[in-house]
Amino acid sequence: IIEEIEINFPLPGNYSIIVQNFSGATASTDSISAHYAVVTDLVADDVVANTPTSVSDNESFDIELVHTFDAIDENTIKYGSLGLSDEGDDLDAFGLINLDFVTGDFDTFILGSPERVEANDRVALSAIVRANDSDQARRYDVRIPTPNGAVFSDFSTQNQGRMENGSLIWEVLKSANDATETVLNFEIQIDTNASPGPINLNATSELLDRSFTSIFNLPSFTSIQVEGAPTITLNNGNNLSFEVQEGGQLTIPFTTTDPNNDAVTLAFVQQSGPTAAFTQNNESITISAPSVDADQVLSFEAVATDTFDNQSTTTFNVTVTNNAPPPSSNSGGGAMQWYFAVFCLLCLVYRRRLLTA
Q: Of 299, 295, 242, 293, which is closest to residue 275 (Cα–Cα)?
């Protein structure tokens, strides 16, 4: 007789199983074996196990587990189990292997000090392959495509370093339990017409002696930045011809951006015209138009400065119109009425003379 106890969603704690041999049993003693399985939601956790398609007797092999988390901090540990079997759906035929998922760094990464550069500058960098703490050798394929805005000016030819189809390539063999890091030096030169902003170096790493593994896209290295000045956009980039009546107010929106994502300060200076008061905040400038005897043009300059003292300027004009009252609408009509009255009086005098004659 086989009896099975199934506990779904057990609470943390200690559990006891008591086995008793009843007198009615045919065997002199009863035996017990405890089996357990940890079942988790593979869809939510997004766990994929990559394994060889076949393994010979007594042959060691690797299993690649890819576990994707929506959000996780470095050094966070998650737990699970892996079932192995050669009997179809009986996944615990070989037993269960407890797993600890510990978040860490990639095996390969690009190393370099943050640096601001200009056209034609050269920058020395390194690709690092970490120590191999496993008991099996590993052979890596490391590739760095030529980045936009730069070219490879020099590189280490060790580890079969070479250029191929626009990519810098190395093949690195790491012995089992190799505690040292492999340093692959290379150098880039900034293009003459490189756009301001980061030089994006996007490397890949692949284990060549593990046929079931995938190519890892390493995080972009963006610490090398081509220096650039901030930009100013007034009035959302629309018409920059402004007009306001004397005594009125004019508000002009603006934005500033920096190719290196530096903090930017913006200052306004009046260059010419009658002095006008103005105030500004982080989004707009408001100009109070002065009193004028006739239409006047005020000229302003906006100066944007980032934390590295790179500057850009733009100018704009504001026309202040005079508020002189328009001519009276009755002046012309009054003159016509006066002329008509004189004409009527003359006609009356002429008629009296005729009557007297």
A: 299
- Residue 119 one-letter amino acid: A
Any idea what DSSP says for residue 289? P
Residue 348 in tokens: 């009356």
pLDDT value of position 41 = 37
For 108-145, what is each residue's pLDDT tens digit? 999 999 899 999 999 999 999 999 988 888 999 999 99
Rounded-to-integer distance, Cα 246 and Cα 332, Å: 29
Rounded alpha-carbon distances, angstroms, from residue 123 to 19, 162, 233, 244, 286: 73, 19, 33, 52, 45
Q: How far apart are CA 127 and CA 123, in angstroms?
A: 13
How far CA 59 is from CA of 132, 159, 174, in Å, comes to 21, 29, 20
Give the C-alpha separation, 234 to 251, whole Å.
11
Whether 328 has a pLDDT exceeding 90, the answer reads no
Q: Which amino acid is at 216?
A: F
In tens, the pLDDT along 197-210 reads 999 999 999 988 77
Task: Tell me how crowded residue 244 is: count the other CB atoms within 10 A of its CB.
Answer: 18
Question: For residue 136, what is the DSSP state?
Answer: S
Residues in the chain: 357
The top-scoring range by mean pLDDT among 21-35, 131-145, 268-282 is 268-282
How far from 133 is each of 61, 82, 137, 180, 182, CA to CA, in Å? 16, 21, 10, 10, 13
Per residue in 214-223, pLDDT (tens digit) is: 788 898 999 9
Report how far apart the first and last C-alpha atoms of the chain are (Å, whole number). 158
Question: Which two tokens mark 23?
Answer: 């007198």
**Region 49-66 average pLDDT:** 72
For residue 219, give the amino acid letter.
P
Retrieve residue 17's tokens. 């199983």
Whether the CB-CB separation of 177 and 135 falls below 8 Å is answered with: yes
